[in-house]
Amino acid sequence: MKILACYSIKGGVGKTATSVNLAYAAAQSGLRTLLIDLDSQGASSFYFRVRSGKKNWGKRFFNTYEELLKQIKASDYDNLDIIPAHQSFRHFDALLSDHKKRHRRLRQVLKGLKQEYDLIILDCPPTLSYLSEAVFQAAQMIVVPVIPTTLSERTFEQLQDFFRDKELRLDNIYPFFSMVQRSKHLHKNTIERMQVRYKNMLETQVPFSSDIEKMGEHRSPVACYAARTAGGSSYNHLWQEISQVMDS
Amino acid sequence: MVKHSRWLIQDADQSEQILERMQTHFLPDLICHEQDTLTFYDDFEWRLWRKDFLLASNIRGQIILTEGNDSQTFDNEVSPSFARSFRNQNLSDRLWQVSDIRRLLPMAEVETSVREYALRNFEDEKKVCKLVITRSGYADMWELTSMRGYDKDYREALSCILEAEPENPERHLYRLSLELLDIKPGKYKSKPKTKVPPEMASADACSKMVRKMWKNVRINEDGIIQDLDTEFLHQYRVALRRMRALFAQMKNYIGPEQSLWFKDALGDLARETNRLRDLDVYLEDRDYYFGLVPEKLQPGLEELFQHFTRERNREQKRVAAYLQNTPYLNKVSAIEETLKSCPSEPGEKGHLPIAEVAAQRIRKRYKQIAKDAALIHDQTPDDDVHEIRLDCKKLRYLLEFFGPVLDKERVRPVMQALKKLQDNLGRFNDYSVQRESLEHYLENHKTSEEIQKAVHALSGVLFMKQQKEREQVCGQLEDFLADDVRQLIKQLTQPTSMAQSSKGSPA
């Protein structure tokens, strides 16, 4: 079982769209996939039309994997299940601060799911916190969408500093360009510069696209209604690249 | 975890009514609606059907395998031909258990329409249940499948359907649909049983049996000509062999002259197919032979098998032509004419009741085995062992032919005991026949040095194997001649057992 995290310190960079569309592409490729929506705003749950139960179960999230099993819901698609976000997930940091081995807690609890799933995708909230540390410990690959602007580049550097500071493995971080507008000089220049600078930079670039924006209306992965458009197909390419990295 | 229920609804209107009722609980979203033609396959002996399997292909390159009430669909499959030619290993293995080397032949077509619905909830239009309705000429089959985390919705959909009190099918829709089309297995059996009353005159009873066996000879011809699978030839030869065995063993009852004539005439037919059968067996056992020689000699064996394959194809064409030509057809009509008049001159004891004769023959044959076995020890020449093997074979035929006339239940344990011995003797014989035949091949064909090396190696291994079997012969014979089996034979052939089955006929 592989664990993949979609993460960014900065919000609004296409993180949830990435989680949702990668999860769909992975499931379509035949992997038994579980998407866990760790972001209490519940955007990826919303895209998959899945709601969490009313019970406040977030406090039991890190106890045992059986707690997680109870919360799993099927998506509309084969091979793809979801653990939807719950409001109580807001308190994850407080919860983790009470745990002794909090960095390893998430990895430990996810281990129990390896019989049932080939891939777990974690959609993470845009914060640097105990939770994100636990995510970085658990995931073999951390995929970071970066809008090619100066500001995004800065936050990406902040993430790397954080990794260095906490002695985490920098080579687990795989950035890729998201919401790319090639017509903009700034985008073009930033891409060229960053491509030289970061050896882990993925080749696929996800364009800024109205098809992807419409996911909220359709409440489904973009490939389900606009598979052949530039936006629709880009996540499939991204998944293929990621799966090659994971298998190597 | 995933729940699944299935019902049959024979009234199409009722189906639509339930669907309508469903709309007050869910949004039924029709995901696909397709017409489909299912082509069902089985082997010549209908072994899939008999073991409660059904195999179908549809127009989308899928294979559907039903076992009892369950069905499984396999995507991207080849059109059915043999169990081993499917891509999916699981599918291939399951079919291999049932139909092994027999060709799967199309036997019926059923038209269906399939509607697949996603049942969605109102609040998010989230798919919460899967519903598939398959319509055939017989009924609608409703299949409801739950989705993880949506058990409550599944229960709601379930109660919606149950209100209409649909039938829980005891058998699969496909089987019911085929039965509606009056599709049912043929009566063919590789070893047909002929019902004869115990008191029937033995000459008449035997004639009745051979006439039935002859049907198996004729029915397999077409499959040999078309080269559908190798079992057609095998079973053709089994039928001839059984007929010859019956004439040979019962000649004094059927009438010696006619029996001899049949033995020769049937032998002529069998002989024409000897080589083809030998080659079929080699090719079927290919993996086995390759496992017997070291890797470095395998290229020689490969070359030999290429020869066999080419020869087999030539031989098959020859046999196919022979079966359709006048000389063969003339022989066949002569046999059929003579069968009609059989027994034309029954032997002196031909009037004796078959049960009595059978019991006596079985006792005698068992005694003969016991007598010959007494002379066998570990150093006895192979020829004497072969003698015993032939005795056992004769006993086996007697039990097969006449066991049911005596006592079906009592014959079974005797057959089981005999089978163990026969397996041992059979292997002993097979190894020596294989060796001889391979050496014969070398003598009569110009072959490369590689082939010769491979054959010599193979021959060595087969010799060792034959020795191993030989070592077990004495022990196996002892088991078969032990008191328990002797008692079984006695019980099977004692007059009371016969009297029971002949229900009051004079003993």
UniProtKB/TrEMBL annotation, chain A:
InterPro entries: AAA_dom, DNA_Partitioning_ATPase, P-loop_NTPase. CDD domains: ParAB_family. Residues 1-164 form the AAA domain. Pfam families: AAA_31. This is AAA family ATPase. It comes from Oceanospirillum sediminis.
UniProtKB/TrEMBL annotation, chain B:
This is CHAD domain-containing protein. InterPro entries: CHAD_dom, CHAD_dom_sf. It comes from the Bacteria. Residues 195-486 form the CHAD domain. It comes from Oceanospirillum sediminis.
